[in-house]
Amino acid sequence: MSAGDGSAGVSAASLGRLLAAVLSRRGAAGPAVAAPDHQTAAGTVSERCALISAAVAELAGRGDLDQSSADPPAPAASYFEPDHRWAGWRADDPPEVPDTASFGRDAVVRALRRLPPAMRLALVAHDAAGIPVEDLHQLLAGTVDQQIAFVDTARRAYVAALAAEAAGAS
Amino acid sequence: MTAYWKFLLPGAVSPFAGYRWAGAEGAWVDGGAVTPCRTGIHACRSEDLAYWLLPELWSIDLDGVHPGSDADHKVVARRGRLLDRVGAWSAETERELAIDCIRRTADHAAAELRAAGDQAGAEELESSRDLGDPDRRTALADAGAAAAARALAAGHREAARLALYVADAVEYLDSCPVATIAYIAARAAHERTGLDPDRYGHDAERDWQSRWLVERLDLAVSATRSEDL
Amino acid sequence: MPATLPDCHTADRLLGRWYDGQIDPDDATLYEQHLLQCPPCLVENQWLRAALHALQDAATEGASQ
């Protein structure tokens, strides 16, 4: 279940396609970033960071890097007050069980695009490309603790966005 | 052979790994490197059943039990194979356990109310035994809430809290799994005042719940831990 | 095992570290115990696992093209 477990099947080309889809201003309608001529598995952490950095630089170079400043979806959970006998426990209704059938690539991309670009980058780097949080400084500013908190926040926002996409699809 | 047990979500799905055991009954499943709580096959002994309540209960055979992995009321093994589903563990028996846990919660609250001087309130909670009837459960919840208000007004916060746990347990019976009700009962036992913690309290309540399961479901009792070493 | 389990607020903070395997084994057990008692937190856990698996699938899609 670690962040790196899902990256074994990620090729440089498929990672590049995902990066273009979520980071470009034109989204999936725009051209893909350059990909290696041959399919290779994502390599070392540094190589994966270099791949991602190159993709971002290419998008920026052609004026296609999404630099919007949208506020991320803010998942709101309410908890019982500190003086309540169940202090800290949820006070709201349970969410619906996820319907994973609606979680196709398009829904994932649309959900990610609801987030600020920096969150999209953090999630693709950490949870798709398997870059450990202590190596995210190669892509994003901040200390390791700040990166941990940022990835946590990004994940919550992404889940909320995916839930909204799934709800819209039903 | 030591008896081990495994609770699963409907469809024989692991609750935390999402692994689908369905179709794998009788076949050895390798849990990979045994690192407790991360990989490996997780199961429990009969005395720890109360900690892991889920809709499906299976007997499981384990190979390569990690020594010392049973410190947290579970065992971790290198591989395991599901044997038989315990058919007696059903929605009906779950509800039986939940209702008995509500009675236990009421008994803990009653003891605390009695210690706080509310003899009538205590007797009202203790007398509510027929909890299969929704109206009786509502009456019990109301009695708990009323006793809590009296206890709070008199400054007996612990008694008030336990009395409200009774109302909580009744409220959650239809909307939450039996594990929630069992936890409320264990928490009520834990918060009793003036008891020997080695003989009463949370662990004793969990022991009671596990014995309930062993007896009601006619389960084989697990061997003592030392036999696995 | 402590008699009082982590509350939902604490469980929400443990979820990410639990998913990444960056959690003390004792905390992992307490977190998992909480999930069994708390349907909303169990569903939150299922959501995160499903969402991140979908992200990983999206990153591998089209790899054979």
Topology of helices and strands:
The complex is a heterotrimer of chains A (170), B (229) and C (65).
Chain A: H1 12-23, H2 45-61, H3 105-112, H4 117-128, H5 144-169
Helix pairs in contact in A: 1-2, 1-4, 3-5, 4-5
Chain B: E1 4-8, E2 29-30, E3 41-43, E4 56-65, E5 75-85, H1 91-115, H2 119-127, H3 134-153, H4 157-172, H5 178-190, H6 202-217
Antiparallel strand pairs in B: 1-4, 2-5, 3-5, 4-5
Chain C: H1 8-19, H2 25-37, H3 39-60
Write down how many β-strands of chain A occur, each being a DSSP E stretch of 2 or more residues. Answer: 0
- State the largest interface: A-C, 51 and 36 residues
Helix percent band of chain A: 40-55%
Number of helices of chain A: 5
Strand content of chain A: under 5%
Question: Low-confidence parts of chain A lasting 5 or more residues at pLDDT below 50?
Answer: 1-5
Radius of gyration of chain B: 20 Å
Count of alpha and pi helical runs of chain B? 6
Q: Report the order of strands and helices of chain A.
A: HHHHH
Cα distance spanning the termini of chain A? 29 Å
Q: What is the global morphology of chain B?
A: elongated
- What is the tally of beta strands of chain B? 5
Can you walk me through this structure?
Residues 1-5 of chain A have low confidence and may be disordered. With 170 residues, chain A is mainly alpha-helical. Helix content of chain A is 44%, strand content 0%. In chain A, helix 1 (12-23) packs across helix 2 (45-61), helix 1 packs antiparallel against helix 4 and helix 4 (117-128) packs across helix 5. Chain B is of the alpha+beta class. Chain B is built from 6 helices and 5 strands, in the order E-E-E-E-E-H-H-H-H-H-H. In chain B, strands 1, 2, 3, 4 and 5 form a 5-stranded antiparallel β-sheet that branches. In chain B, helix 5 (178-190) packs antiparallel against helix 6 (202-217). The longest helix of chain B is centred in the middle third of the chain and has 25 residues, at 91-115. The model of chain B has no long low-confidence stretch (mean pLDDT 89). With 65 residues, chain C is an all-alpha fold. Chain C contains 3 helices and no strands. The model of chain C has no long low-confidence stretch (mean pLDDT 86). The interface between A and C is large, with 51 and 36 residues.
